[in-house]
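As described in the Methods, two query proteins were run sequentially through the folding procedure within a single session, without resetting any intermediate state between them. The first query and its resulting structure tokens are shown here.
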Amino acid sequence: MNNKYMWQKFSMDIDARSGNPASGAEKDAAEYLELLELGEVLARQDFSQGSNKAAVLLQARNRVLTEQEEPKMSIRQRIKRPAMIVASLLAAGIVSISFVRPSFAQEMLVRALNTINLGHIIASEMDPNYKPEFPEAWKGKMFDKDGHPITSFNHKLGTVFNAEGERIVNFDGDKLITQSEQEKLDKEQAARIFAVKDPAELDKYALFRVKLPEYLPEGFAFDHGEFYKGEEGVNGQVVELFFTSEQTGKRIWMQLRLSNKDNAYEMSTSGKMEQVELNGVDAVMMNERTLDWEANGVLYDLSTHGLDRAEVLKIAESIRW
């Protein structure tokens, strides 16, 4: 996903999965405004898929889900998260178990209050009061703006830095990633995106029939689809679809995956989670803004921003799988 839409997806995901609007003070924070400007939309993921999609640290509406695939076009994508937000992601229940460090995954299983299993999709309702342990591997490597070491998720901070004073914006397992390192990774990832503007062309690259919604709210239109590409060409197992409305600022994002064990995923929320039915198929709805389901060999993930529950369901039910 290119940077513009990565940040858009972030915006929608946060709105959809957390369901908690930022306070006036948080909206005025420079970090928060920066994130909103960079990504005004997806406002959840797994995401993400960045195994997200998934980073760290307590307080924050500064949460980011940056999706990125594994090397050599493996479809098990990984969610990368800014180091500023790991704890807040966990506390908000946005992090997907399959996309985080193993120790975090185990802790999240402990805090699951309810689970819905759809086969290749597992959704959990999490205990919002559970506090994860701070990774030992990060101690002595992360500092606040005043140079004080960060050793717990209870440490209140904004921007975080490494020992050399470089800003930390992401992580990969135990490795903390600086802003300059992330910019390099972003460029490499952008080079692997294959965009398709004509919806009629999507089936040429996907390994399944790409079914688009027959219903979209007034003003919405298909913008483009994205595949990943590698040395062997375009990877047709996963496609991301973007629908935009210039007039309203509302947004719709979808991800479709070929259904198999490698593309299976888990997600969580500390907000509202319910099992619903879409044209005879079981689905999971989170915070009345996102829907995930499996039908005819395809995994569907629908995320929205600014739409009500009935509208979200209507969009999903209009897909003729």
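Immediately afterward, the second query was submitted; its sequence and tokens are:
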Amino acid sequence: MPQKERQLVVFSLGQEEYGVDILQVQEIKRLTEITRVPNAPDFVEGVINLRGNVIPVIDLHKRFSLKAAEVTDESRIVIVNVQDITVGITVDAVSEVITLEADAFAPPPPLVAGIEASFIEAIGKLEDRLLILLNMDRILGLDEVAATKEVTQKAVQEGV
């Protein structure tokens, strides 16, 4: 649980709003062409070239078992640091950066429908809405981190 105020990057997937700690966000990019990598895990959309670095891109819709969304002008790739790797996550839109005090957070309810409860760090209570604060380190488990690193290495070897 958060101990003090936190700055969050707020983005949407479908009708829901999510937040991720701004300290984990490296940058936000327009959705660009993603190079597919054969035999990648289902939730890995592919890779992008970010200033000479090959970055794996994760489709959060697939990761959370949500219905795929249409790509629009608002679609973005949020570049985040997860565990010891840098990955991009596709989102429908990035809306704002907000600061929330510690008392604005509540633990997730015991029976969380939809995405796996382990992905949720807390629920942020805003004036007129709720925000799901994601635990980015849990979005990828150890097996997924290994698979994502393998995808990146394969893409580098193939000269993506």
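Helices lie at 60-63, 136-139, 142-157. We note this only descriptively and draw no conclusion about the first query from it.
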